[in-house]
Every structure is written in C-alpha cells, then in structure tokens.
Write a structure and sequence with these properties.
Oligomer: single chain
Distance between the termini: 51 Å
Helix content: 25-40%
Radius of gyration: 19 Å
Strand order of the largest sheet: 3-2-4-1-5
C-alpha cells in the first residue's frame, strides 16, 4: 500500500530537522517540493539523492489527481515538503492530504518545524488556548477578517510579510486598541532572530523608524478585560 508522508523542514537553521524526517526522505520513491531549488539545498546538505518534483500553489490542482492515481497503481512512498516549515500550514499540502484520504491512501504527518509554536511559546502570552490565523487576505476581506477575529478572546498568531507588517500593526491598534500587547518575532531560528514586545502603539513607533526585512510572526495577547 502506498504512503504519503508530510515532512516538516527547517524554517531557517538546517539543524532543525529530525532523524526520522531524513530517514523517510531517503527511502521515498518521490519527493514533491514547493520549490525544488530550495529543497535541493536541504537534500544535498543531508546527502539525500532522491529526485524532486514540483508541487506548489500554482500547479497542485493540475497534478494532484495524477499523483493519487499513480499511488493507487503502484506501492510507493511519497513525501511532500515545503520551502520551510510544515506543509499544509500556510503552504500547499491540504489538497493532497484530503484527496489521499478520500482514496484510502495512508497519510502520516511527521512532527517538526513550524514558526507559529516557537513564536507563541516565547511570547509569554497564555498558550492553553490560541487562535492561529496565518496570513490575512491582502486586500479583499482583510478588514472583515480583522473585525471578526478581534472579537475572539484568545491569544492570536498571525503571519505577515515585511511589506505589510506596519500596516498590520496599525490595524491591530485600530481594531484591538493601541494598548493591546503584542509580540513580533523576526527570523525565527535564523542568524538575526529577534523578538519585540510591547503595545501596538510602541510597536508602531519601533517599526516606523527602521527598515523592515525578514519573516515575521505576530502574536496578539488575549483581552485581559474579558
């Protein structure tokens, strides 16, 4: 019986991969990757010689059925990796998993790197209950989504690009209040990892006066007044 493995890969530091993940990648018949050029560097680092096949948001709807049919015709071990982190979490993966489940193909997701958990835990905000939002819509539906989640009384975790980080901070100040505590994690596990804590107003002052580069996770504290 064929098997699909969802393999988390390092979000920055190449050491953040499990022995099991390396073992599964080495024994895979095929490895599908969000960007084969990026994943090739990881495979070379760990002396993994399997061929990579593209699987990303622009082609997944065209190739997923063929992947599934091939798995039904022949017993194979197939792995899916994204550029960084766990496939299916703000990266392609959901469609392949659901299609495989529909056809009774075994799917296993290995534990491993993802940016949201380190950002949440080190924020110091309550983590017994939290809402993971991922990336907000860029334009259409963005304000509606913000109004909706601002009413939820949980610690909230969002991803944001450097181009829209300042915009997001302004929106948090507007919908959550200028004094709402937030923690902004930059470049988790990478050389220039840093964490900024304070009110939305304070974060706006900090990031208004500096060049914004890198990858960011924004954690918003729950409303203490509720």
């Amino acid at each position: 019986m064929s098997t699909i493995y969802i393999i988390p890969t390092p979000i920055g530091n190449l050491g953040d991969i499990t022995y099991r993940a390396i073992d599964v990648l080495k024994k895979s018949n095929k490895i599908f990757a969000e960007d084969t050029r990026t994943s090739k560097k990881l495979l070379l680092h760990y002396d993994i010689n399997q061929k990579l096949y593209p699987y990303h948001q622009h082609n997944e709807h065209f190739v997923v059925d063929k992947i599934i049919e091939n798995l039904l015709d022949d017993d194979q071990v197939v792995s899916l990796v994204s550029d960084a982190g766990t496939p299916g979490i703000s990266d392609p993966g959901y469609l392949l998993v659901t299609k495989a489940i529909e056809r009774n193909i075994a799917v296993y997701c290995l534990p491993g790197p993802t940016a949201l958990i380190p950002a949440l835990v080190q924020s110091g905000f309550p983590s017994n209950e939290f809402l993971f939002v991922g990336f907000l819509p860029h334009k259409k539906g963005r304000q509606k989504k913000l109004k909706e989640i601002a009413q939820q009384n949980f610690t909230q975790v969002l991803y944001e690009s450097p181009h829209r980080l300042l915009k997001l901070i302004k929106e948090i100040a507007l919908y959550y209040g200028e004094e709402r505590q937030i923690c902004i994690s930059k470049e988790i596990t990478k050389l220039h990892e840093n964490h900024f804590r304070g009110t939305a107003k304070e974060m706006h002052q900090i990031f208004s006066s500096t060049a914004i580069k890198g990858e960011f996770v924004v954690v918003i504290e729950k409303n203490k007044n509720n």
